[in-house]
């Protein structure tokens, strides 16, 4: 017999994504979003869901583009900070000492110091309720050399991303591997 | 200077969600999805993105409901198995010895042995490309007593969910906590 916990968004786990945009004056802004994920393979798409009250919301509506920069564990504090203040009143790059880099592919900036970035053009905007979902087509994924293995493939241990647990409001490391997909299920 | 990896869905990390549905004849089915996440706080919503070729796709279109059962690490093999075969030809519950339970709230079954389940009614269907996104309003979240703490709140260490890394096709444990959100960012 399972216990009812109510209709809540307390599902583990979510990513910790830093969404980069330009405002009307061309000032770079970042905010941290946990309501995000991959939503299509062809075209390759991710989404972020944002409240209309965020500064980023209008930036994406106007520029039709955003980036997602993935912080490594080293930048957990900065990622949390990016979710605490608004670009309406704070220059979050200046506040944290991090560096905006203009994407060459989409009209949005990413965070230079974060090891992995995704550059997106808005494909669809879906009104859900308090949150609006921005579905972005991935134009490119870019990574620092230090997070690639010898075959130039992305190594998750080297990226060392953090994830978020909505039920405990805690950030976590990615833990040890426990199996290869499309493989261990064949043992059944 | 960052290295271009191409327009690929290789972003770490995704959840490992087992989507439960009934087919036209009322037979319970499950499939594992990694393209899923939380997408709205009010109403509380999650989504799963599925290819039209999946058996689950038609089940959700017809029943307008699905559940998500979260496997603990113990069930990594079963979760992988659920993504390898189709409900068109295989009774996945029988194949794995797991037990379908009819939800009392939505027209879909969940997996009894998994510690955490989310019951959803379809709110929106969004065509993206190869994948169709089913946005489901959360009707309830249910958990086994053994994954709750003394205050009856969900404990992620006890749930012991797995996550997936698309770039390496590996399942991972959730690692150690590295900070409290809406807290550690204030130190900056």
Describe the protein in words.
The structure is a homodimer of 188-residue chains. The longest helix of chain A has 9 residues, at 55-63. A seven-stranded antiparallel β-sheet of chain A has the order 4-3-7-10-11-6-5. In chain A, strands 2-12-13 form a three-stranded antiparallel β-sheet, with no helix packed on it. In chain A, strands 8-9 form a two-stranded antiparallel ribbon. Chain A is 13% helix and 44% strand. By secondary structure, chain A is mainly beta. Chain A has four helices and 13 strands. Chain A starts with a strand and ends in an 8-residue tail after the last strand. Chains A and B meet through β1, β2, β5, β6 and α2 of A and β1, β2, β5, β6 and α2 of B.
Give the SSE layout.
The structure is a homodimer of 188-residue chains.
Chain A lengths: L2 E4 L7 E2 L1 E6 L5 E6 L2 E5 L4 E7 L3 H9 L1 E6 L5 H7 L9 H5 L3 E3 L6 E3 L4 E12 L3 E13 L12 H4 L2 E4 L4 E11 L8
Antiparallel strand pairs in A: 2-12, 3-4, 3-7, 5-6, 6-11, 7-10, 8-9, 10-11, 12-13
Largest sheet entry of chain A: 7 strands, antiparallel
Q: Calculate the mean pLDDT score of chain A and round it.
A: 97
Output the helix-strand order of chain A.
EEEEEEHEHHEEEEHEE
Q: What is the terminal-to-terminal distance of chain A?
A: 27 Å
Number of strands of chain A: 13
Q: What's the Cα radius of gyration of chain A?
A: 17 Å
How does the overall form of chain A come out from the CA principal axes?
globular
Strand content of chain A: 35-45%
Structural class of chain A: mainly beta
The largest chain-to-chain contact, stated as pair and per-chain residue counts, equals: A-B, 99 and 99 residues
Low-pLDDT residue spans of chain A: none
Order of the strands making up the biggest sheet of chain A:
4-3-7-10-11-6-5
